[in-house]
Amino acid sequence: MVERTSHRAAPEHTHPDDVPVPTALAALADPVRITLVRELAGSPVWTRSCGSFDVPVGKAALSHHFAVLRGAGLVEQRDEGPKRVNRLRREEFDARFPGLLALVLRED
Amino acid sequence: MVERTSHRAAPEHTHPDDVPVPTALAALADPVRITLVRELAGSPVWTRSCGSFDVPVGKAALSHHFAVLRGAGLVEQRDEGPKRVNRLRREEFDARFPGLLALVLRED
């Protein structure tokens, strides 16, 4: 038998290069996902677990928001024991959509 | 009695300076609205009536898409006799959201 640290399937990712413009815009057109992206941008990579964000949504909704962010090439995730930790794909996303993250990260 | 060229109410507009980031992103996260914006960007201002766009939607849906574009500060409209004509608010929108229109207008 194979030993596993988690029963969850590994998260599926989409590289920013494979993301259509409307998908990227829709992913960032949501206040909760903007908060997630801003908090990730302010933290060292791989330090933030999914439960560590200050957003007013339940676990299922949060899981959906992270799936949208992965599908838009914005977030990479990996499992570390019981935790799923996150990285903002800042350089790859900026290369594909110049200036878009900056718009979302700026004070408004 | 007042003579009127149209029974429609004048369209309501929102200036780009008053548009939140998520509203702007959501307005542009739609293939039909992207087509409208691209066609407007390729035409002289005030030359395109609402019926002149090559999009696969009915009249009610088209009217909704234009309302979303007005509400995001992307399009200005005015009535000229029986026609409602359009202008892309390119300079004002670019000043508020630098680089965003360019992302949508580029070849992908």
From TrEMBL, chains A, B:
<protein>
    <submittedName>
        <fullName>ArsR/SmtB family transcription factor</fullName>
    </submittedName>
</protein>
<dbReference type="InterPro" id="IPR036390">
    <property type="entry name" value="WH_DNA-bd_sf"/>
</dbReference>
<feature type="compositionally biased region" description="Basic and acidic residues">
    <location>
        <begin position="1"/>
        <end position="18"/>
    </location>
</feature>
<dbReference type="InterPro" id="IPR011991">
    <property type="entry name" value="ArsR-like_HTH"/>
</dbReference>
<dbReference type="InterPro" id="IPR036388">
    <property type="entry name" value="WH-like_DNA-bd_sf"/>
</dbReference>
<feature type="domain" description="HTH arsR-type">
    <location>
        <begin position="23"/>
        <end position="102"/>
    </location>
</feature>
<dbReference type="InterPro" id="IPR001845">
    <property type="entry name" value="HTH_ArsR_DNA-bd_dom"/>
</dbReference>
<feature type="region of interest" description="Disordered">
    <location>
        <begin position="1"/>
        <end position="21"/>
    </location>
</feature>
